[in-house]
Amino acid sequence: MDGSEIISAVKKVFPEFNPLSAALDYPDELRIKIQPQDFKAVCLELHKILSSPVMTLFAVDERKRKNVFTVIAVFLNLKQGQWVSVEMDLAPENPDFDSLSRSIHSASLFEREVWEMFGITPKGNPDLRSLNLHDEVWPQGNFPLRKDFKAAAGNLSEYKFNRVEGSGIFEVPVGPVHAGIIGPGHFRFSCAGEPIVNLELRLGFTHRGVEKLFEGKTCAEALTLAECISGDSVFAYSSAFALAAEKISGVCVPEKAAYLRGIFIELERLYNHAGDIGGIALDVGFSFPSAYASLIREAVLQLNELLTNSRYLKKINAIGGVNADIDAAKQILLSRSLAKIKKDFRELTQMLKFSVSFMDRVDTTGTLIRKTAQDLGVVGFTARASGIPMDLRKHFSGVYRQAKFKMATEEGGDVLARLNLRFTEFAESLRLIEEFLSRLSRGGEILTPPQPKEAAALGYAEGARGPVLCWLKTDAQGRIERCKITDPSSHNWQALGYAVLGNIIPDFPLCNKSFNLSYPGNDL
Amino acid sequence: MIYILKNRILKGIVTKHVDRDLHGQIKAAGADLRRLIQKNFGRSLNLRQVDTGSCGACQSEIIAATNPLYDLQRFGINFVASPRHADALLVTGPLSKNMFTALQKTYAATPEPKFVITCGDCAQDGGVFKDSYYIQGQIKDVLPVALHIQGCPPSPLEIIRTLLVFLQKEEQKSV
After folding, report:
1. How many domains does one find in chain B?
2. Which of A88, A181, B55, B73 is the most exposed place for a label (fewest CB within 10 A)?
3. pTM, rounded to two decimals
C-alpha cells in the first residue's frame, strides 16, 4: 500500500486537492503534507473514507529550524492496518487553522489542547475552555509546550461550567477528591428528579506536564518516564514508546522479544480486566465476588513479579526488545499459574452470571449506543462493547496475526456488554499467552541495540483500555524534540457523560467503573 | 448463592497464603499493632487517601493491601470515604498545581489530632516529575508529613511493613 489510492479517493470528492508530499516513511504510516487551506476538507474526507475518528491531533513547535508550527492529525485505516497522518505548516505569528470539531467531534478536545499548550487558535471551535491548565492556578497567555516557554505572570480566572436551567433542576458537584481510592476528577451532575440530565466532567487534576518533560531526554531515559504516565498500563505505554523509537532508528525487534512483549501486555490486560470485573461487583455492593476477583488480580501481579521482578512490569521493555526472558523453568511456572487463574476465573464468572440481582443491576445500565460511540470517536474495549470492531491487535500484522487473534465485540453498549466483553477478552488473553509461549524459541536474541537518528514516527499498542499512541520526534543525537502521548481515555471520557444520561446518580460509580478510564493518562 | 458458598468453603482463609516467614512476622507485629491502634486511635486507624497527581500505581497497591490476601483491615487500619472520618491522610503522587487547593482543603477538613503519610517516590520529592512546570513543590513543605512509604510503587507488603514499624516507634515515643 503506497497510499496513492487514499489520495485519489480524496481527489474524487475534492478535485483541486494537491498534496505537497505524500510519503510512506514506514510500512504502517502514510504521511501526507498539505496546505493549511486544504486541511479541513482533507480531514473531513479521510474521516469519511476511513470511517476513523481523529485518533490524535497535536502541534509541534518547529520555529527554531523551519520557522513554523506544524499541526498533525492522525487517522486510522483499519482495512490496511495503516496510520494516515495529515500535516500542515502554520506561520509563527498568530498561528491558526480551521477547526474540525463542528464536523468531527473527536477533534474537539485535541484542538482545545493545541490551543492551551501552544496558543494556536482552531478557528471556529465553539469551546476553548482550558482542559489541563486550570484557569484558577495557571496565568493566561502561558503556553508551556512552546520551545521558548518561560512562566510569566498573567491573569487568573475561573472555569465556567455549562449550566442546565429550569424548574426542579439541581446540581450535584462531586470531586476532585472522591470517596474511593481513585484518581481525582470533578463531576457535575444536573438532575431532574432522580435521572441525570447532564454530566459535565472537569479533568486535568493530575496534570504533571509529562510531554514537556520528554523533551531533551534520550529515548532510553524517556522510557522510564513513559512507564510512569498511567500506572496500570505500564507495559502498553512502554511498548508504544519503544515501537516509536524502534521505527525511528530502524531496529527490528527479534522475534522472541516480540512474543515476550505479547505475553507481558496480555498479562497486563488480565490483571486490569480482573480488577475491573471486581470493581463492577463492588459498586453494586456484591462483595464476595469482588474480593474473589481481587485475588485473581493479585495472582497475576504476583506472577508478573515472579517472571520479571516487577508487579507492574516496569523496566522490562527496552528500545529494541525486552530485558526479561522467560526461560524453561519460568515457562512451566507461567503455564501452571495460568491454569489456576483460568479455573478461578471460571468460578468468578459463574458467581456473577448466576446472580439474578447482580445481572439486573448491570443490564441496560449506562448504555452507550453505537451511533453515539461512533460520533464521539470512542476507542478500545468501550468501542467494542458498543459494536464497533476496532482493535489494533487485529488490524496490524505481528505476533497476534500469527496467534490467530480473535477480536470480540458486544452489541449492547451497556455495563453488561462491557462486563461480558471483559469475560471474553480475559479468556482470549489466556489463550494468547499460551499460544505465544508455545512459539517462544529456546535461547535467541531478545534485544537489538538502536541507533539514534533524526526522524519522527508513531508508536502504538493496544493496552487494556484501548489504543495507546505515542508520536515521537528525535534530533540527530537521538534526543527527543517532541513526544505526543494519546491515551484511549482521552477519547472515552466524554462518552461516559452520554452513557449516564437517564440513569440515577447511585448508578454512576457502576457506569464509571465499567468504563474504567484513566485520570493520569488523560491529564498527562 | 450455591457458587458463593462453594467458593467460600473451597478458598478458606487466604490471608495465610502470604509468604510464610512474613506471615509470622506480620502476625506477631500485627498483634502489637492492633493493641496499639486500639489504645491510641480508639480501636481503629482511619486513613483517607488523596491522589495529588499520581500515575495510579500507588493507589493500585494500596487497594491490593486491602485485598483478602494482605487484609490491612485486620490490624484495625481502614480506608474511609471522607476526611471528616479520618485520623490521617495518605497522599500519593507529585503535587500537581491543580490539586494544591484540594489537598489543603482536605487536610483542613480532617479533625485533630491528625497526621500525613506520603506514599510512593513521587510524593516524596516529585520523583520523575519533579522538574516539571506544573509541580507545585514537595508535599512535606505544605503539610506536616509524619511518615513516608518508599517505592515506585511500594508493594502491599512494604506498605504494611512501613506502617507497622512507624506505629511501633510512635508507641515507644509515647511510653
Report:
1. 1
2. B73
3. 0.92
Grade residue A439 by pLDDT with cuts at 50, 70 and 90. confident
Instruction: Give the three-state DSSP class for A151.
Output: coil
For residue B52, the chain A residues in CB contact (below 8 A) are 184
pLDDT at residue A320, rounded to an integer = 85
* Min Cα separation A313/chain B (Å): 11
Find where cell 493493641 sits. Answer: B35
Ordered domains of chain A (ranges, CATH): 4-123 (3.30.460.80), 211-488 (1.10.645.10)
CA distances from A473 to A165, A317, A401, A454, B34 (A): 47, 20, 29, 7, 55
**Mean pLDDT (chain A, rounded):** 89
Out of B69, B97, B128, name the one closest to residue A295 (CB).
B69
User: Among all residues of chain A, which has the CA nearest to that of B98?
Assistant: A205
With contacts defined as CB-CB under 8 Å, which chain B residues touch A212?
132-133
Q: How far is the alpha carbon of A474 from chain B, nearest alpha carbon, in Å? A: 20
Length of chain B: 175
Secondary structure of residue A11 in the 3-state scheme: helix
Are the Cβ atoms of A207 and B101 closer than 8 angstroms?
no
Q: Flag whether pLDDT at A443 surpasses 80.
A: no
Which tens digits make up the pLDDT trace of A134-179?
A: 999 999 888 999 988 888 888 888 888 888 988 889 999 987 998 8
Q: What is the pLDDT of residues A295-304, one digit of tens each?
A: 999 999 999 9
DSSP for residue A447 = B
Instruction: Specify the CATH number for the domain of residue B95.
Output: 3.40.50.12280
Closest chain A residue to B8, measured at CA: A288
Kindly list the distances between the CA atom of residue A134 and the CA atoms of A21, A102, A489, in Å, as whole numbers in the listed order: 39, 24, 19
Structural domain range at position B147: 2-174
